[in-house]
Amino acid sequence: MSLVARHLEENGIPTVIIGAARDIVEHCGVPRFVFVDFPLGSPCGEPYDVAMQQRIVGAALDLLETATAPRTSVTMPLAWTKGDAWKETVFTPEQPFLSGDQVKNWEARKQRYREQKA
Amino acid sequence: MSLVFRSKNGEDGTVTYVRYMDRIRDYYVSQGYEKPYRWAHFEEVPFTPLKKPLSESKVTLLSTSDVSVRRPEGEALPVVETTVGDVYSVPWNTPVEDLYSRQESFDRYATSLDDLNSYLPLTRLEECVESGRIGAVTDHFHNVNRGYSQKLMNDTSAPVALEKCRDERADIAVLTPV
């Protein structure tokens, strides 16, 4: 998505990314970024927490108005309700990121791409 | 296996944000994948200022959440929705309850994709139109079928995404990677 944001911006469309993988987005380098320190899958707020989601989307719109230079990031001052234990276990062998079937789908997806390329 | 997770937080007891690049590299090494992924990196970053006030701007939404319209069981998805690197569009006014995410790459131990607005804020942006914070939303939202090839993203996904924005005369794009 960072690459898409860059391309849109190069072609005259202002963008803002709302995301949870801060290091990946900032390593790439994007114009505007709202960092939400939540598990992958909930960048725009906790499920069913409408007020929190409104706050995050509002911050993204604010950033569109206030940023004057690229690599402008804001960090949402929010904490995941159930605590930060997920940070210790995400992408570890104790908690495989994809289940067995999902790994198969991932491999199939890679194979599809190889076929698309051929 | 005695793999050391260099990327684990909390060596000094502090918890901070997850370093996914380190974590993912360590994880895939532990799973037997040898070639580490090279993440995109640029020194220069483009920037386009807003052309008009938000209250007069049309906003589009792009995501990698692989959201589709629910279909009768057995009915195949359109090819564009499963082609790696392609971008597809869904009418924004589709009732949220008729949509679902096919994305499998998320932290399923910590959260769920049951509430679209936690990763694809369709309703939240509609509310911003109602309140006058933004001028309008586009007729469609768009999904980028994420791939691992940066070349594919740069040569295909990004130009198609741009075309979609231009077709709908979007002034601004909100992007939500999942």
Report on this structure.
- The complex is a heterodimer of chains A (118) and B (178).
- With 118 residues, chain A is mainly alpha-helical.
- Chain A contains 5 helices and 3 strands; from the N terminus they run H-E-H-E-H-E-H-H.
- The model of chain A has no long low-confidence stretch (mean pLDDT 92).
- Chain B is an alpha/beta fold and 178 residues long.
- In chain B, strands 1, 3, 5, 6 and 7 form a 5-stranded mixed beta sheet that branches.
- Residues 1-10 of chain B have low confidence and may be disordered.
- Chains A and B meet through helix 1, strand 1, helix 2, helix 3 and helix 4 of A and helix 1, helix 2, helix 3 and strand 7 of B.
- Strand 1 (15-19) of chain A pairs parallel with strand 7 (172-176) of chain B.
Order of helices and strands of chain B: HEEEEHEEHE
Structural class of chain B: alpha/beta
Name the beta content range of chain A.
5-15%
Assembly annotation: heterodimer
Q: How much is the average pLDDT of chain A? A: 92
Class based on secondary structure composition and strand pairing of chain A: mainly alpha
